UniProtKB/TrEMBL annotation:
This is Amine oxidase. Contains 1 topaquinone per subunit. The chain crosses the membrane at residues 7-27. Residues 163-261 form the Copper amine oxidase N3-terminal domain. SUPFAM superfamilies: Amine oxidase catalytic domain, Amine oxidase N-terminal region. The modification 2',4',5'-topaquinone is found at residue 455. It comes from Capsicum baccatum (Peruvian pepper). Homodimer.
Amino acid sequence: MEGKNFLRYIFFLMSIILLLIFTFLNLPSPLPNTSHLFNCTTYNSPWCNSKRSLFLQQPKLTKNHYADFPNHPLDPLTIDEILKVKKIVNSIKEFSKNGYVLHSVVLEEPEKEVVLSWRKGRQLPPRKASVVARAFDVVHVLTVDIETGRVTRRQTGGNSGYPIMTIEDMVTATNAPLANADFNRTIVQRGVDLADLACLPISPGWYGKVEEKRRVIKVQCYIMKDTINFYMRPIEGLTVLLDLDTQQVIQIIDEGKNIPIAKATNTDYRFSSTQKNTQKINLLKPISIEQPNGPSFTIENNHLVKWANWEFHLKPDPRAGVVISQVMVQDPDTGKMRNVMYKGFTSELFVPYMDPSDAWYFKTYMDAGEYGFGLQAMPLEPLNDCPRNAYYMDGVFVAADGTPYVRSNMVCVFESYAGDIGWRHAESPITGLPIREVRPKVTLVVRMAASVANYDYIVDWEFQTDGLIRAKVGLSGILMVKGSPYVNMNQVNQNEYLYGTLLSENIIGVIHDHYVTFHLDMDIDGPSNNSFVKVNLQKEMTSPGESPRKSYLKAVRNVAKTEKDSQIKLKLYDPSEFHVINSNKKSRVGNPTGYKVVPGGTAASLLDHGDPPQKRGAFTNNQIWVTPYNESEQWAAGLFVYQSQGDDTLAVWSDRDRPIENEDIVVWYTLGFHHIPCQEDFPIMPTVSSSFEIKPVNFFESNPILNIPPNSPKDLPICKASASA
Ligand SMILES: *[C@@H]1O[C@H](CO)[C@@H](O)[C@H](O)[C@H]1NC(C)=O
Ligand SMILES: *[C@@H]1O[C@H](CO)[C@@H](O)[C@H](O)[C@H]1NC(C)=O
Ligand SMILES: *[C@@H]1O[C@H](CO)[C@@H](O)[C@H](O)[C@H]1NC(C)=O
Ligand SMILES: *[C@@H]1O[C@H](CO)[C@@H](O)[C@H](O)[C@H]1NC(C)=O
Ligand SMILES: [Cu+2]
């Protein structure tokens, strides 16, 4: 291969298919380069010599994962376990004869009661794998008992839709059109060199004709001539419909021949190239935080995180990204650990584009159930994705043939201090009390970043010592743009609608939404006796003569009896708080203990409920839902999402209207973004973030962080402009 072509080929793999080259080699992850992380010669800080420093002892960095073994019932499958599963699946008669494809192999979590009653030091409950395999077009859901080697459950059929695409599916889809002479001819007719093509695998949604009875995919292409940012050079109007299993081209739609391909100018966003192309601006000096005595958190056996008053289990997941389990917070009065949440994760993402034309109508991505949100999470970049004091966790995933592979540095954990205030009070001179009491706010952040083709999602779980948990999603990466004949808005007729914003010559950023639906299995002081309470603020008028005031607000509590009582559409002028309480557990003064969901990122889907994508995405019809705990109801868009028809969504489950009062309940919250692109989003978007919170409400007897100490200069390293050893 020629040098240039070879580079293109490498780039092709890296950026389009999100496939790490070592993915299928079954190699341990390469050792991260740590020299830039812990260069103690440049920092005059006891931190560097501290025996307590997690980083200096960090076993993780030299670990190859072959020796991993499970320590906790929720620990993900190890390499050893995955290899055993592969062997067991291989021995299934019909699989070994005719072959199979594995779409998912993950730990089958033991039943919730089993996990909750397990204690450290005891034997682990039987380790099982949940396997989704396809053989002869039939989807099998298996439970494999790893110890006994037996398949203890096998299910076929069920709801509409296909399992998550494999990475192999995505790779073959982008290459397959090149086997078709008509496709090649079309590309050449557009004046594009076939060697410059970069194609994307696009899930087709479900519209009821071409999607029936076979797995299909749509492929659209870009040119990467003169830029690494090929997304800004779409071959507009060209869509290849492909059978994902036979790789046959079913149809080529080619409607954009009159639309020029945008120039490569100013599309490169890499530091090396932006330094050349724009004025040099050095706005900031280097910055980082110091932890002179090392970090305050520990990670036991790779997965059990303990920090300040918090403890939780953390694991990477190929579909959800990260899963946080058994979240407990310490009661400052009794010292006991108290349950808050059994499990929290991003259950689904829904990203509908708002252009009904032929080349765009189907773009309504479900990034978790179609592409695998965790599979698309790339290694985090130390110092920039996560600060210098971060700890990194790898993911161990499974390829389509059952081979385990390592996704290194997929998740990071770090303490964050942004100069914020935990609580404060100062007395004015009027009282004569010389009081200024202030406490700094330090938080613990768990982060991952998924790059689903062009888009990047940053998901943070942030824990505060006052008991609050914040789930934050940041959007960055590159827009999905549409080619256009226009180079300036003055060419656009007043009556013509562009479906987006002209961002640069010949490209339009198409309007779209992002919805991230979280599964929050709240267990306030244990799994049972939880209820969902809407605390509604209502305007109350005073009686004539009662008060100089005419009106005030009254808080009215409504306990949700059944699921439909908990289908919440947020309303600015009819506000409520949303509490999850334990009706069996009261505070000293008699309030039920609870946590509330504090909404944020409240964009709501306005699509018609009968619109095919909204049927599949019906879990976004409300911002909040509450369901009774059911271990089969984890994925808001259904177990099988690819080409699903919306018959297994959260909306369908919730409409059963089951009782949810005084039960084990699950809260679902959807963080929403409307995105009308603007020129600043070109050629890459500055991060946009939204978050929601779960916050204690009468859970503690009083402010739980009265006893945290203030910062003192004597505890901190000496900061000098050019400190050196
Ligand atoms: C640490 O930093 C010093 C000063 O910048 C540099 O000379 C040295 O090579 C660095 N050491 C490592 C291991 O990177
Ligand atoms: C299409 O072009 C590619 C790249 O040049 C080539 O490898 C392939 O054989 C062509 N396909 C056909 C059917 O000619
Ligand atoms: C709490 O839940 C348990 C188990 O579901 C039930 O037996 C008990 O009656 C409940 N307590 C109250 C006060 O409702
Ligand atoms: C649990 O969920 C599955 C899937 O939605 C459903 O078939 C089953 O009926 C549910 N069980 C209960 C008790 O609601
Ligand atoms: Cu967007």
